[in-house]
């Protein structure tokens, strides 16, 4: 395995875990309603589908940083597109919806960039050893 700076190695992984916990936190609004046990379980599952998918991709990205770079970049782009389309469909225009894009997609973009930097470092170190 190519030697990579510890900061570049650990930062995207730790930020990814924190980001997934942040996304999972939004599913807690299920408990505010008077749902039955199984409705609550289903609601939690549905709300956590993005976090579950990103968690699986993080697991793959632990050794293959390029997967993390692509996955988190696509997640950020997808959320931005969904936020903009929700904004355009709202009447009257609710401009605060655009800030959601920065709050949720911003960390995903940062994590993607850090995974990409780690992948580039590892790749450069491998080429230098040849």
Oligomer status: single chain
Tally of distinct domains: 1
Beta content: under 5%
Instruction: Please compute the radius of gyration using only Cα atoms.
Output: 18 Å
Shape, principal axes of CA atoms: globular
Mean pLDDT: 89
Helix content: over 70%
Query: Mind describing the biggest β-sheet?
Result: none
Helix/strand order: HHHHH
Number of strands: 0
Number of helices, counting only DSSP H or I runs of 4 residues or more: 5
Q: Terminal Cα separation, in Å?
A: 13 Å
Explained architecture:
This protein starts with 5 loop residues before the first helix and ends with a helix. It has five helices and no strands. With 130 residues, it is mostly helical. The protein has one domain. The chain has helices at residues 6-25, 37-47, 49-61, 65-89, 96-129.
Structure at a glance:
This protein is mainly α and 130 residues long. The protein has 5 helices and no strands.
Topology overview:
Blueprint: H1 6-25, H2 37-47, H3 49-61, H4 65-89, H5 96-129
Please name the defining characteristics of this protein.
mainly alpha; 130 residues; 5 helices
């Amino acid at each position: 395995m190519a030697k990579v700076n510890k900061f570049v190695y650990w930062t995207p992984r730790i930020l990814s875990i924190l980001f997934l916990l942040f996304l999972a936190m939004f599913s807690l609004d299920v408990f505010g309603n008077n749902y039955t046990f199984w409705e609550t379980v289903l609601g939690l599952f549905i709300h956590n589908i993005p976090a579950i998918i990103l968690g699986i991709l993080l697991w793959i990205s632990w050794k293959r940083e390029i997967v993390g770079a692509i996955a988190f970049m696509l997640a950020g782009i997808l959320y931005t597109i969904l936020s903009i389309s929700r904004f355009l469909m709202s009447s009257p225009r609710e401009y605060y919806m655009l800030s959601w894009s920065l709050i949720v997609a911003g960390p995903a973009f940062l994590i993607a960039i850090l995974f990409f930097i780690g992948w580039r470092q590892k790749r450069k170190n491998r080429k230098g050893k040849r």
